[in-house]
Write a structure and sequence with these properties.
The complex is a heterodimer of chains A (about 170) and B (about 230). Chain A has about 170 residues and is an alpha+beta fold. Chain A has helices at about 5-10, 10-15, 30-35, 65-75, 160-170; strands at about 20, 40-45, 50-55, 80, 90-100, 105-115, 120-125, 130, 145-155. Classes of the chains: A alpha+beta (about 170), B mainly alpha (about 230).
């Protein structure tokens, strides 16, 4: 069951059928989760705390939207796409808010990634991880994540393709 | 850039502030400077001087000035205030005659300002009431900060939040705020480390490998200093 504080912030999660998949923690954030399933480090351009991390090949303290996109591009996510489930591709959706950091510019607010089942997984700030079925369920609140700005995809490995095919076939039955 | 405040609306707001105070409203302080913050943003282009003529205690004036500075930052197009500037704001605002220096610098203009710390006798009488009130203000700010930034993916956004910065300002004036932060950290662990570093100039958690390590290190520091039990 979803915690009340999440429903309050993201009321659309109820209709979505989202489920909590971890306890709340300040140890890692959505970027660490979606980029590397890293549950030991918090990924952010500014290293506020010793357990914070930002890839050395990217400029530190740079909160431009492009810097966050580049992080995922460096992991092989290249082509801009849509949210459709594709057996051959894993996808990440990057949320942004207009004017979030700088006037007249989009600012990174959240990222989630598509599971082999076709659903999405999100680590919600310092709160819980959740599995949600649509990207829209986290949209619509400019005090939180704003809207999905871009979706990127990369080719899955063979194992993941096999699993995804299984889920796809199961959905047809 | 100077921020000039519409006197009429400012007076209206200050009256509201005083009314809140008289009615002993739980959140009067919080509501007051949130409102001031809003008003400054909204009426920034109005070329009229503010007419403030009432007495508030020193830390209340800090909160007021904090709201003004935050507004000024936003008007200058900086939505998120860099963490390294927090302490400078506090120092600037808390120095003797900080409000005068603000006026002299032309950043904030008032035709009449009487925001003075209350005199020592009054201060002493009001001390215990002030402490209780300070705790209420702190709890209100902490709750607002948690409610509004809890889901944020970036700590920058959390540290830049106006409530967090107001706590820093209050903490620079009232040492008891460090204790309140440590108590809050004990009850509901959260990202209080930046505030503690800024307010104490110490960092017992500099080698922490996790959030939990940092929390433990700060709580031990607080116990060693006999700030918390």
């Amino acid at each position: 069951m979803l915690p009340a504080h999440l429903v309050k912030k993201f009321p659309k999660l109820l209709a979505d059928g989202a489920k909590k998949t971890s306890e709340a923690t300040n140890q890692y954030n959505c970027i660490a989760w979606s980029a590397a399933r890293d549950t030991q480090q918090w990924y952010e351009p500014e290293k506020f705390e010793p357990w914070y991390h930002w890839p050395s090949e990217l400029p530190p303290k740079d909160y431009t939207f492009e810097n966050f996109v580049r992080l995922f591009e460096n992991l092989g996510y290249k082509k801009r796409t849509d949210a459709r489930f594709e057996i051959l591709y894993k996808k990440v959706a990057i949320y942004a808010i207009y004017g979030y950091f700088e006037k007249d510019k989009w600012g990174f607010s959240h990222v989630c990634d598509q599971l082999n089942s076709g659903g999405w997984t999100s680590k919600l700030g310092d709160a819980e991880d959740i599995k949600h079925n649509s990207l829209e369920s986290l949209e619509g609140n400019n005090d939180e994540y704003g809207e999905v700005k871009i979706i990127l995809k990369r080719r899955c490995n063979l194992f993941d393709i096999f699993i995804r095919a299984f889920f796809k076939i199961r959905s047809w039955l | 850039m100077s921020v000039v405040i519409n006197s009429l609306q400012m007076d209206e707001n200050l009256n509201r502030l005083l009314a809140f105070r008289k009615s002993d409203d739980f959140d009067w302080q919080l509501a007051a400077y949130s409102k001031i913050h809003e008003i400054i943003l909204k009426d920034a282009d109005t070329v009229e001087s503010a007419n403030i003529n009432f007495r508030i205690s020193s830390w209340q004036s800090s909160a007021l000035v904090a709201a003004m500075l935050l507004a000024q930052q936003q008007l200058n197009g900086v939505a998120a205030i860099p963490a390294e500037n927090f302490h400078n704001y506090s120092k600037w605002m808390l120095g003797t005659g900080s409000l005068n220096s603000l006026q002299q610098s032309g950043r904030i203009q008032f035709s009449q300002v009487d925001i003075k710390p209350i005199d020592l006798d009054e201060e002493s009488k009001a001390e215990s009431a002030d402490k209780a009130e300070l705790e209420k203000i702190f709890n209100g700010l902490a709750k607002k900060w948690k409610d509004e930034t809890g889901g944020s993916s970036l700590t920058m956004r959390r540290y830049a939040h106006s409530s967090y910065q107001s706590i820093l300002v209050l903490g620079g004036k009232e040492p008891k705020v460090v204790t309140l932060i440590l108590q809050e950290l004990q009850r509901r662990p959260d990202m209080w480390f930046e505030a503690l570093r800024r307010l104490t100039n110490e960092d017992p958690a500099k080698n922490a490998k996790s959030f939990e390590d940092s929390t433990k290190a700060w709580l031990k520091w607080g116990q060693d200093k006999q700030l918390i039990s």
